[in-house]
Amino acid sequence: MSNNHGHRSLYGPLLALMAVACGVASCSAPIDLSAVSSYANTTAQSATAFSAVAQDFEGSCERFSSVILGLVQPEVAAQQAPVVVSSAPPKEAFLLPSNMTPAPGYTAPPEAYYAEGAGSAPRPLQFDPQCADARTVSAAWDHANTVVLNYVQALGNLAKVDAVPSPNPSPLVAGLAKAGVSSGATQALSGLVTAISGFFVNKTRNSDIKKFLEDVNPHMPGTVAALEVTDASYTIELDAEFTKVRAQYADYVIGEIAARDALPGNDRNGRAAVNRRLAITKGAVLAALASINQHLRSSHDYGNAISGILKTHQALYKEAEARASFANYLNIIKTTGQPVLSDLQDLMKAVK
Amino acid sequence: MMPSLNAQQIAQDFIALAQCAADVLNSPANLTPQQANDLNDANTQLTMFAVATAIDTAMQALSAAQSDLNAISSATSTANAKANALKNNVTQLNKVLSIIGAAVTLAATISTGGTLGAVLTAAGALNTAAS
Fold it and tell me: What distance in Å separates the CA atoms of residue A301 and residue A295, rounded to the nearest whole number?
């Protein structure tokens, strides 16, 4: 009896303490971390696509070199060649459609270029057919991508996505129950332990996130600007490749048609051979151009994703400086971060 | 120093000119093979300059960002270490709660006159929690 009385006297203060703790720790519905999880996981999954984009900086240079030398290299099997059903189709039959244009790539915003560089004339440059500089860019771009992706991953780690165990008061509750403490009191104590430890975990987590965002913030605009400029350069490279393939192929067609039409009138086999060759080549060129357009779409999606990562970072930093709660961070990931997920998913599809 | 927007714009202008050459080559205009060759050569020069400028621009941009990249890498390592530290702290807290719980259970078993077997079981649980 006296024991029960003792429990009741313990129960009251415990409930009061718990109420205070809940007030401090903002006891509410459990925080839904799925937005952070999606943001961090999708970004991690796009690492392969980021790497493929960076590697193709060198790839485009090498394909361009090859076209200049007169060789078009489609990355996929050439489309089926059209069947020639005339002894002397005009050159228009083999030339590419006039509406064949490169897909929109990426153009870096003007602010991506530092003012000190603006207005200066480009250095006289010579194209290196061995693509040594392009190879260097691919490696450096890949490294820079990894740094940015690791930053997003670290944000996810700090947010404890699927990583940190929850405070577990069960063993203590079991011991107290064995000692005869009433279930009401043990439940109150369990809530108290969870609330207090949750409060300190959240406080530490918010403080760690804030510090991380502050440390990264001075360096993020410069990094993303470099990635945007590099991606815009990649788009120029791909545009040049597309244009070069078209011009080189048309030159080839005009030469071949002139040679065919100069054949003696009775050389039907000779004309048929030229026609077949042109038809096969056209199929390969169309496949090559389609492939370049696919790379241009990747460049476009990559640029948007990188810009979105910067915007999300800046919004998180702004909230951190305004002493944001974790819920505020989550809200930013759900709103500002959402377009990044779409861009990353588009990029992964484009690279496939 | 970051590359200039001007250089990038000039490269784009060269691409636009090269596209004009490619359009003419792909048009129904009756070009002689020599004219087609000349136009194709012009296209080659324009696109080569554009590609060389694009590569140089990207090299400059990535080089200029190197110190920023190093700083972000360093901050990321620190952040990951803190994330692990917090994870370990919660694990430690749970361990302490387990030890206290096992100790209370042992004390309750002894004070309520539990059997030797029950006391030994509770003591074993405490030992496990503390190890």
Answer: 10
**Measured distance CA(A264)–CA(A278) in Å, rounded:** 19
ipTM of predicted complex: 0.80
Nearest to B93 by CA among A175, A172, A155, A179: A172
Q: Tokens for A270, please give them.
A: 């000779």
Contact B83/A154, CB-based, under 8 Å? yes
Number of folded domains in chain B? Answer: 2
How does DSSP assign A12-64, residue by residue?
HHHHHHHHHHHHHHT--SPP--HHHHHHHHHHHHTHHHHHHHHHHHHHHHHHH
- Distance (Å, whole) CA A248 – CA B37: 9
**Are B89 and B122 found together in one domain?**
yes
Question: Which candidate from B6, B15, B107 shows the least CB-CB separation from A239?
Answer: B15
For residues A154 and A172, give the distance between their C-alpha atoms in angstroms, rounded to a whole number.
Answer: 33
| Region of A100 on the Ramachandran plot (φ > 0 left; ψ -120 to 50 alpha; else beta) | beta
Backbone angles phi, psi at B61, to 5 degrees: -65, -45
Q: Which residues touch A270 (CB under 8 Å, ≥6 apart)?
A: A260, A263
Provide, as residue numbers in chain B, all residues whose Cβ is less than 8 Å from the Cβ of A98: 23, 26-27
Domain boundary among B34, B64, B94: B64
Nearest chain A residue to B53, by CA? A125
pLDDT digits 0-9 by tens, A83-119:
676 667 888 888 887 778 888 889 888 777 753 433 4
pLDDT (tens digit per residue) in B66-125: 999 999 999 999 999 988 887 787 788 788 888 888 888 888 888 888 788 888 888 888
Q: Which residue has the tokens 């000779």?
A: A270
The boundaries of the domain holding residue B17 are: 1-64
- Supply the pTM of this predicted model: 0.80
Instruction: Return the SS3 of A196.
Output: helix
